[in-house]
């Protein structure tokens, strides 16, 4: 199953300039795992040293914010996954 | 119906004030009544940096009657790429003093209260009072403290944050929207890159939210995150929801009377 992943412009250079790409996976966890295999430069932004998804990353499925307990929920073919890095600048 | 806190007593407008605000009073749905609501409004802006510069300038010129500015820092040269409240002559001064002087010269008809202290667990409830809260901070621990006051006192909080060429804003109404603790589990570490135009854009969005909220017009960023990508020159919107496990706004609170912490 394929999910569309939208890359934030901040991380565009780690995605070879691609803004949108297709990734295989049945849940968010699987999609992010496959995403960093396709684009290894993104790994350190999405995962910590222990291999866990970073708490500083906000995930959105079809434009809606989702939290940790939804990361293993089944996705549908064509769903859109978007992520942002939580930043605190003022 | 959304609760509207922070409204006090108002005086009549002077001729000068009516001339000053004429262009906004003629906006449909605004009128003198809307202007009076702004004059009665009490708003606390936490942070007189990049976001705070845009927010404070525009709330002041719009005629928000009572503005309280909180910031414990002094002006540094490295602030001046984005913090347009301050000038070279202000280097070394408390940011809140520089902010008060600038804002008072922009609009002498409003009250500016300057609090040059760092927000702590011990002073945050007193500093905020029952004012509408604008989050123009640059660190998560202080944001959590502001959020705690907002949640416990059911005060609306206008949030904004920036990083590099990107920024975002949302309006938090405790009980109806996610709070800061729902949204933020942590932030990127290290020195935050920022170009002045980004906090200007986001700060203007926050100020617009405050003005609409007080005047009672338009649609707020409730359960909506507005994301500005300055590099792609795009605005994106995402839907927000409360974190069912949030320890600030979803779990029953236990505190004794007289101690809100």
DSSP helical segment count of chain B:
9
Number of structurally distinct domains of chain A: 1
Query: Greatest chain-chain interface?
Result: A-B, 23 and 44 residues
- Average pLDDT for all residues of chain A: 95
Span of the ends, CA to CA of chain B: 28 Å
Question: What does this entry look like structurally?
Answer:
The complex is a heterodimer of chains A (90) and B (261). By secondary structure, chain A is an alpha+beta fold. A 5-stranded mixed sheet of chain A has the order 2-1-5-3-4, with helices on one face. In chain A, 17% of the residues lie in helices and 27% in strands. Chain A is globular. The longest helix of chain A has 11 residues, at 28-38. With 261 residues, chain B is of the alpha/beta class. An 8-stranded mixed sheet of chain B has the order 3-2-1-4-5-6-7-8, sandwiched between helices. In chain B, helix 7 links the parallel strand 4 and strand 5. The model of chain B is unreliable at 253-261 (pLDDT under 50). Chain A binds chain B through residues 8-10, 12, 19, 54-56, 58, 60, 63-65, 67, 69, 82, 84-90, and chain B through 47, 49-52, 135-140, 143, 160-166, 168, 178, 183-188, 192-194, 199, 225, 227, 229, 231-232, 237-241, 243-245.
Name its key features:
heterodimer; A: 90 residues; alpha+beta; Ubiquitin-like (UB roll); 5-stranded mixed β-sheet; 2 helices; B: 261 residues; alpha/beta; Rossmann fold; 33% helix; 17% strand
Q: What's the quick description here?
A:
The complex is a heterodimer of chains A (90) and B (261). Chain A has 90 residues and is of the alpha+beta class. Chain A is built from two helices and five strands.
């Amino acid at each position: 199953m394929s999910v569309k992943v939208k890359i934030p412009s901040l991380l565009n250079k780690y995605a070879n300039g691609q803004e949108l790409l297709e990734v295989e996976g049945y849940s968010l966890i699987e999609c992010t795992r496959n995403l960093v295999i396709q684009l290894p430069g993104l790994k350190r932004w999405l995962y910590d040293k222990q291999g866990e998804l970073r708490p500083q990353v906000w995930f959105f499925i079809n434009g809606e914010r989702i939290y940790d307990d939804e990361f293993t929920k089944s996705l549908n073919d064509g769903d859109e996954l978007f992520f942002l890095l939580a930043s605190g600048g003022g | 119906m959304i609760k509207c806190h922070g409204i006090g007593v108002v005086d009549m407008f002077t001729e000068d004030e009516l001339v000053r605000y004429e262009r906004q009073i003629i906006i449909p749905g605004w009128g003198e009544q809307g202007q009076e609501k702004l004059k009665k409004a009490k708003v606390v802006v936490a942070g007189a940096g990049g976001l705070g510069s845009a927010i404070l300038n525009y709330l002041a010129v719009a005629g928000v009657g009572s503005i309280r500015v909180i910031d414990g820092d002094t002006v540094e040269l490295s602030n001046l790429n984005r913090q347009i409240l301050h000038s070279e002559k202000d280097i070394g001064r408390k940011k809140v003093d520089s902010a008060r002087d600038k804002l008072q010269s922009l609009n002498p008809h409003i009250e500016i209260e300057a609090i040059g202290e760092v927000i702590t667990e011990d002073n945050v409830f007193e500093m905020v009072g029952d004012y509408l809260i604008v989050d123009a901070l640059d660190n998560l621990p202080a944001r959590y403290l502001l959020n705690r006051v907002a949640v416990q006192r059911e005060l609306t909080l206008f949030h904004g944050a920036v990083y590099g060429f990107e920024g975002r804003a949302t309006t938090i109404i405790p009980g109806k929207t996610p709070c800061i603790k729902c949204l933020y589990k942590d932030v990127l570490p290290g020195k935050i890159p920022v170009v002045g135009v980004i906090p200007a854009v986001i700060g203007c969005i926050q100020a617009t939210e405050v003005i609409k909220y007080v005047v009672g017009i338009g649609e707020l960023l409730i359960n909506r995150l507005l994301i500005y990508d300055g590099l792609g020159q795009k605005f994106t919107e995402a839907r927000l929801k409360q974190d069912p496990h949030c320890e600030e706004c979803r779990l029953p609170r236990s505190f004794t009377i007289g101690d809100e912490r």
